[in-house]
Amino acid sequence: MATDGSSSGLELTATAALSGLVDSYRRMHMPVGRYVSVILVPSAVFFLVTIGVALLLDLPLMIRGPIPLLGVLAVGSALFYPKILLSQRRKELNNQFHLVVTHMTVLSTTNIDRMEVFRRLAEQDEYGEMAAEVGRVVELVDTWNQSLDDACRRRAKEVPSDAVADFFDRLGYTLGAGQALDDYLLSEQEQIIQNYKTVYQGTLDNLEVMKDLYLSMILSMTFALVFAVVLPVLTGTNPTMTVSAVITLYVFV
After folding, report:
1. N or C end of the chain, less CB within 10 A?
2. What is the pLDDT of residue 4?
3. If you ran DSSP here, which 8-state letter would residue 30 be given?
């Protein structure tokens, strides 16, 4: 029974990991076919070359053995690079999200056109990937003649960050219903600030726990060092080994 449960858990984890990897390829700016032909295929060829070199070289196994590891590293890097890139994009979007919403709220209260709000945000390079996402909304409206609410809903399906996707989705439906941009953003900003406050407070609590744990480990190593010095005096043994072991543990801590 327990074995079946653990096997099912492993299958679900593997399925989720594979699904996430496939999704990262789908969200790449480069077409998947081009990435495979330009990156994955050459890395696989390099892996085969390293295996051939390791087999053909007349060198000790200790020297030839690590050569295929270079090929494994190349294939692994090429295979998981889109996943790493997507994670970096998601992290950058989450870090800049609340700042962009605050800036958007301020601009919306100045009575300028709502598209001008998006255009100005798209020009703010300091917002990084978040500014690029706003720029893609502007491009859908200006270049492809889509309405702002349709553009927001379309980008909500492509954005890797759940928070940003939910924001774009709600914004699209709100604008489509005729609500003013500033009214929506003022109410949305309060919720976003509260959510981030909760997240930051949880992070601070985790840091506090880690600080207490680190101090406890340091104090434990200090007491161990004292015992390592005193114990050989009482027993008449060589203190070198005990003191060296404690110092080594202290360095690792």
Report:
1. N
2. 60
3. S
Q: How far apart are CA 148 and CA 114, in angstroms?
A: 9
Whether the Cβ atoms of residue 148 and residue 117 lie closer than 8 Å to each other: no
Q: Where in the chain are the domains?
A: 2-90, 94-189, 200-252
Alpha-carbon distance of 10 to 60, in angstroms, equals 39
pLDDT (tens digit per residue) in 59-84: 787 878 888 999 999 999 999 999 99
Burial of 132 per CB tally in 10 Å (0-12, 13-18, 19+): middle
Report pLDDT digits (tens) over 5-54. 566 666 767 787 888 888 899 888 888 999 999 999 999 999 999 999 98
With contact defined as beta carbons under 8 Å apart, do 101 and 185 qualify? yes
Residue with tokens 């809903």: 153
Quote the longest CA-to-CA distance of the chain: 88
2 burial type by CB count under 10 A (0-12 exposed, 13-18 middle, 19+ buried): exposed
Q: How many CA atoms, within 13 angstroms, populate the side-chain half-sphere of residue 244?
A: 4
- Helix intervals (H) in 109-180: 114-122, 129-142, 148-156, 162-176
CA dist list (Å): 57 to 53, 65, 109: 6, 11, 71
